[in-house]
Design goal:
The complex is a heterodimer.
Chain A lengths: L1 H17 L6 H28 L3 E11 L2 E9 L1 H24 L6 H19 L4 H19 L6 H32 L4 H11 L3 E4 L2 E4 H16 L8 H4 L5 H10 L4 H8 L1 H4 L3 H22 L5 H21 L3 H28 L17 H15 L5 H15 L3 H29 L18 H26 L3 H5 L16 H24 L1 H10 L1 H8 L4 H32 L1 H18 L4 H22 L1
Antiparallel strand pairs in A: 1-2, 3-4
Chain B lengths: L4 H18 L9 H24 L8 E9 L3 E7 L3 H22 L4 H20 L3 H10 L1 H11 L4 H30 L4 H7 L3 H18 L8 H8 L2 H26 L1 H27 L4 H20 L4 H32 L10 H4 L1 H14 L6 H16 L1 H8 L1 H17 L16 H19 L2 H28 L1
Antiparallel strand pairs in B: 1-2
Helix pairs in contact in B: 1-2, 1-4, 2-3, 2-4, 3-4, 3-11, 3-14, 4-5, 4-6, 4-11, 5-7, 6-7, 7-9, 7-10, 9-11, 9-12, 10-13, 11-12, 11-13, 11-14, 12-13, 12-19, 13-14, 13-17, 13-19, 14-16, 14-17, 14-20, 14-21, 16-19, 16-20, 17-18, 17-20
Classes of the chains: A mainly alpha, B mainly alpha.
């Protein structure tokens, strides 16, 4: 069963791709059906895990064996992997279903579906790995699929640029991950998770000399692993690819850049929690990066105008929440937020896709407005998604986000207090930009000259059905799974798959903290209603008076420009320098060309000697003879 | 003495070449006879090698299938034999040669008969290099390989072929002269040229350094290492597709093989002494040539520069003297043999249609030739070392070995994985994606079954070894272990002496 769950998506991907020559619906049917079966199986695996405690590790075959280095292909089912399997396969199934309608007019549908399935397979391989190398395989595999899908519309130059950017920025992160793995192998002698976790305590105080810096081994390993997580999960400094990735088709954004792939970083940190727990420095690093990302992305999202980019920054920001949850030691809460986030963020993306689809691929929210009457179902699902995202009481986001803030507060350190404060502030910003999106898209006047209002219609059933399922998920996921994932009896569920240090205890949390987030997100609804719909002058004034801040935000803190200046341009220049100056003007000039020039010179001289005149030869003979004579006189 | 399988494998191509030489010139026809003969011989050879691999004993590090014949009595013996390292190179050679011959059909338009003769003769020399267990015989094969390659570039090359051919010749000759002196010196010291006997006798330490440098100069040019790499891009650009394929897939590997068989095994102390030099050059090769590759506007040059970067990993791995490092280098060489062959063939497919290797001629091909675009994607991904392709395993193991030796070297080398992704994907994007702007491109046809089948075959091999490299690792394991333990023994003895 475990084999089937993992390999069905791969099977679907390959068969779907090969059958593209046949009837159009065949690839769609095969891929969707495979994912459907896979998600059913995943749910059964998950259920068996909870009820019958059926977990296990299945060896497929040995991958690499070189000296004392071994890596296997395995399927490792434990609580952590089983819950992520459900998230991945379920969302993937809904996205497949949605794509049938969304991509209807695209001639390359089979390719698209095949990539989606391949992605699902890679993500599952990542999740069920019991060692770092297979994880790395999945890690790069999802990166590849993300690259292929962002650049799916290959005629668009911006899409190609975005695809390469995504791959390269991710590779920088992957480099970190790889170095982390090398360090682990070097000191632990294995890359198998359970074997590493057992021996971590023996190394907890080991210092190593890393490039002249004396550093704790565990801190170094965790920092490098986290660098990988930062790349994949688009954390500050390595986040620049995620907004650009919105060039891909919307179902891709929902599946890869919201629900699953970008959360792989969080998964990695949770998976490695037994290592991270031994390095307070690394954990603080994780907290700080998470915090900064949450705040940074939310601030940028406030002013963006592209509907998908707003949600992308929102994703970035929510991933920041997950990381600082992990940073304060609440790994299970991070996974809980990952779980709920998958539903409402996929819902928001698919909902915005529905809007984009009916507006003929218009993504600018300034050119929308008043759509709620035309698309009532999409409107309601987007509202529910937004409520869940902002953490409105009793929807899924409420449970997970509040738990994160409470945990940060409870951790007792100064950093924890700051993180809790940033968490609350970000919750407020999240509410503002999310409602801005809703009000600008669905309310107010219709602002689009290019599309006739009467042509706008609600999307078809294949789009609405996944939305409906995700709406249910967004409403109940938090409530239903709260007790199991982060409740007081959680240790029963997580077993040993995540290290859990402390339990949440509501008694120690002041009441004001408990109610502050719900109050903030509730009052932000009328606030944003006021500034975005009722009194637009207020906003314009604000913009006018703070032009510099506004520019700073709308240009995303100038990260792209800075990177272009520091990395992209100099690297090209250096490459050109090495080629033209290094290879051509130095090595070749003094190497082969130089030699051949000298030879030519000598042979030219030599030809002059062979002039054919007898006196020339006689002259040379004379010189030779006298030289010989001198030689004999001196030495004999 | 059983059937002399090694000499058969070595000399069958030569016999094939003789047959082609004797066939009549058919001016108007495509010279089908010559193609059939050469295909037949190269396939026979390939299957013989498979049989050799099958009957090869993987549990011993001794040389196997030894054939001995005295040539000049008391001096040079004609001695063949293989171990777990050389058999893989022979396999690579006999695998790539038929592929190169098939690609001749599309890309060599004139003097096909002579071209095929050159390829077959070259194959004999290459296999001879990997079989020889006598220094002089090795030297003869090693240098003889120069001639057919020189002719392939010089006769069937592009517009600047003479310059490139001479550059190729000049560089390689420089190294080989020094190696010849070294070979004579070794005979003078040990009184034998039998490789196995030299292993037993051990060369005195004071000679090792100079001898190592002499061999190094030859192998470094062949491989090629920075800064003697500049002949490679020129040679590739001018060489016809089959020539590039053989050059990249096999000829370069002679350098890596030489390092393992001679430098490390015969001069362990000098190898240890010079390892930092190799590390430095490897790091420069990886970073420098990757950056140069990024800026290339000619596809073949780009692939050539990327080869230099990939060979940087090979030298780095060998001189870590770790199991992972050396096994990684071996895998990297085999996998680069497949990947670079595939990449040059792919470039050749485009060149045969449009007669341009410049990247900016192309763009937007995805729509017109989807099959080609798909298969090129596999090779691009393999070249940038994506896990699941053979390219990944080699690089990864080399880096594991490097981390055991030196952090700084390892980290600098691992930046190569970012850079390789940059130049490969950027090239792919400019050639395959984007809008179709060049009208000439609209007419071109997708690959014919000929081209498709060989590329698919290579693609499948690359992926299979990416998921299951055990057949290769298993073959080399014992020999590599033996090589490392001998090395460690010598180095320890030397340490004790000092």
């Amino acid at each position: 069963m475990e084999y089937a769950a993992i390999f069905l998506p791969l099977f679907g991907s390959i068969i779907g791709y090969l059958s593209k020559g046949f009837k159009d619906f065949l690839p769609l049917l095969i891929t969707t059906l495979c994912i459907f079966l896979s998600s059913i199986l995943s749910i059964i695996i998950f259920y068996n895990g909870i009820v019958h405690d059926q977990y296990g590790n299945y060896l497929i075959f040995e991958w690499i064996s070189s000296g004392d280095f071994t890596a296997n292909w395995t399927i490792n089912v434990d609580p952590l992997s089983s819950i992520i399997l459900v998230v991945v396969s379920l969302i993937s199934f809904l996205v497949h279903l949605y794509s049938i309608e969304y991509m209807r007019h695209d001639p390359n549908k089979p390719r698209f579906m095949s990539y989606l399935s391949l992605f699902t397979f890679s993500m599952m391989v990542l999740v069920v790995s019991d060692n770092f190398l297979q994880l790395f395989f999945g890690w790069e595999g999802v990166g590849l699929c993300s690259y292929l899908l962002i650049g799916f519309w290959y005629k668009k130059d911006s899409a190609n640029q975005a695809a390469i950017k995504a791959f390269l920025v991710n590779r920088v992160g992957d480099l970190g991950l790889a170095i982390g793995v090398f360090l682990i192998f070097l000191y632990f002698g294995t890359i198998n998770f359970s074997e590493i976790f057992v021996s971590v305590p023996n190394f907890s105080s080991k210092q190593i000399n890393f490039l002249g810096i004396e550093i704790n081994l565990i801190t170094a390993i965790c920092s490098f692993l986290f660098l990988g997580a930062m790349g994949k999960s688009a954390q500050l400094f390595l986040h620049t690819w995620l907004p650009d990735a919105m060039e891909g088709p919307t179902p891709v954004s929902a599946l890869i850049h919201a629900a699953t792939m970008v959360t792989a970083g969080v998964f990695l940190v949770a998976r490695c929690s037994p290592i991270f727990e031994y390095s307070q420095v690394a954990l603080n690093f994780v907290t700080i990066i998470g915090m900064l990302t949450a705040l940074f992305a939310a601030s940028v999202a406030l002013v963006q105008n592209d509907i998908k980019r707003i949600i992308a920054y929102s994703t970035c920001s929510q991933l920041g929440y997950m990381f600082f949850a992990a940073g304060v030691g609440a790994y299970h809460v991070a996974i809980f937020h990952l779980f709920t986030h998958a539903f409402f963020k996929a819902l928001l993306f698919l909902g915005s896709g529905s809007v984009i689809h009916s507006l003929n691929d218009e993504q600018d929210i300034r050119k929308m407005g008043g759509l709620w009457k035309k698309m009532p179902f999409t409107w309601i699902s987007m509202i529910i998604g937004t409520l869940a995202l902002t953490g409105f009481p009793f929807l899924s986001g409420y449970y997970s986000k509040d738990a994160i803030i409470e945990f940060a507060f409870l951790s007792g350190s100064n950093l924890g207090y700051i993180a809790a404060g940033v968490g609350i502030l970000t919750a407020f910003l999240t509410a503002i930009y999310s409602w801005r999106l809703i009000f600008k898209t669905f309310h107010g006047k219709f602002n689009n000259q290019e599309t006739n209002q009467t042509n706008i219609h609600e999307s078809g059933i294949n789009i609405l059905l996944p939305l409906g399922i995700l709406v249910i998920g967004s409403i109940v996921a938090g409530f239903l799974f709260k007790e199991m994932l982060i409740g007081n009896y959680f240790s029963n569920f997580w077993d040993n798959s995540i290290l859990i240090t402390k339990e949440i205890d509501h008694k120690n949390i002041p009441l004001w903290l408990l109610i502050s987030t719900p109050i903030i997100v509730t009052i932000s609804i009328p606030i944003s209603f006021y500034i975005y719909l009722k009194n637009k002058e207020f906003l314009n004034k604000l913009k006018f008076n703070n032009q510099k801040i506004y520019n700073f935000l709308i240009n995303k803190w100038y990260f792209d420009e800075i990177y272009d200046f520091i990395f992209v341009k100099p690297i090209k220049k250096v490459g050109l320098f090495f080629w033209k100056i290094g290879d051509v003007k130095t090595i070749d000039r003094y190497g082969p060309d130089g030699i051949s020039k000298i030879i030519k010179l000598i042979s030219n001289k030599a030809t002059k000697l062979q002039s054919g005149y007898i006196f020339d030869y006689a002259f040379v003979m004379l010189i030779g003879f006298s030289l010989l004579l001198t030689f004999f006189i001196i030495y004999i | 003495m059983n059937f002399p399988i090694l000499s058969s494998i070595t000399f069958i191509p030569l016999i094939g070449a003789l047959f082609i030489f004797l066939t009549k010139d058919e001016k108007n026809e495509q010279n089908k006879g010559a193609i059939y003969v050469s295909l037949f011989t190269s396939f026979v050879n390939f299957f013989l090698t498979l049989f050799l691999w099958y009957s090869f004993d993987k549990t011993t590090s001794d040389f196997q299938f030894i054939e001995e014949q005295s040539w000049i009595s008391g001096f040079i013996k004609f001695k063949f034999g293989i171990d777990g390292i050389s058999i893989l190179f022979i396999l690579l050679t006999t695998l790539v040669t038929p592929i190169a011959i098939i690609s001749c059909i599309n890309s060599v338009k004139q003097r096909l008969k002579e071209f095929l003769i050159a390829i077959l003769v070259l194959q004999t020399f290459m296999i001879g290099v990997f079989c020889s267990l006598d220094l002089v015989i090795f030297y003869i094969f090693f240098e003889a390989g120069l001639i057919p390659m020189f002719l392939i570039i010089g006769i069937w090359g592009g517009p600047n072929k003479v310059y490139s051919a001479f550059k190729f010749f000049l560089f390689t000759l420089l190294g080989s002269v020094l190696m010849l002196v070294a070979v004579i010196t070794i005979y003078w010291i040990t009184g034998t040229t039998d490789v196995n006997e030299i292993y037993q006798i051990k060369i005195p330490q004071e000679y090792q350094y100079l001898l190592w440098l002499a061999f190094f100069s030859s192998f470094a040019v062949k491989l090629p290492m920075w800064p003697v790499h500049t002949w490679l891009p020129d040679a590739h650009v001018e060489a016809p597709t089959p020539g590039s394929v053989i050059l990249a897939a096999i000829l370069l590997k002679m350098g890596g093989y030489g390092f393992l068989r001679f430098s490390v095994s015969m001069f362990p102390i000098a190898s240890e002494y010079f390892a930092p030099l190799i590390f430095t050059l490897s790091i420069i090769a990886i970073i420098y040539t990757s950056l140069v590759a990024l800026m290339q506007d000619d596809m073949k040059k780009l692939v050539a520069y990327s080869s230099v970067a990939h060979m940087g990993f090979v030298t780095l791995g060998i001189f870590t003297f770790e199991k992972q490092g050396i096994e990684g280098s071996m895998l990297q060489m085999i996998s680069h043999g497949l990947i670079s062959a595939a990449l040059f063939l792919s470039v050749g497919v485009l060149y045969d249609r449009i007669h341009s290797r410049l990247i900016n001629t192309y763009g937007g091909l995805a729509k017109i030739i989807p099959k080609y675009s798909f298969i090129l994607m596999i090779f691009v991904l393999a070249a940038l070392g994506l896990p699941g392709t053979s390219g990944f395993i080699g690089e990864f193991l080399v880096l594991v070995g490097a981390f055991k030796t030196n952090f700084l070297v390892a980290i600098l080398a691992s930046t190569g994985i970012v850079l390789s992704a940059a130049y490969m994907l950027w090239m792919y994007k400019r050639v395959i994606f984007g809008k179709l702007e060049n009208n000439e491109l609209k007419k071109i046809k997708d690959m014919n079954s000929n081209e498709f089948s060989i590329l698919l075959f290579l693609g499948v091999l690359i992926i299979v070894f990416g998921f299951y490299p055990e057949p290769l690792l298993e073959t080399m394991r014992v020999s590599v272990d033996n090589l490392i333990s001998n090395y460690n023994l010598e180095v320890k003895k030397n340490m004790a002496l000092n």
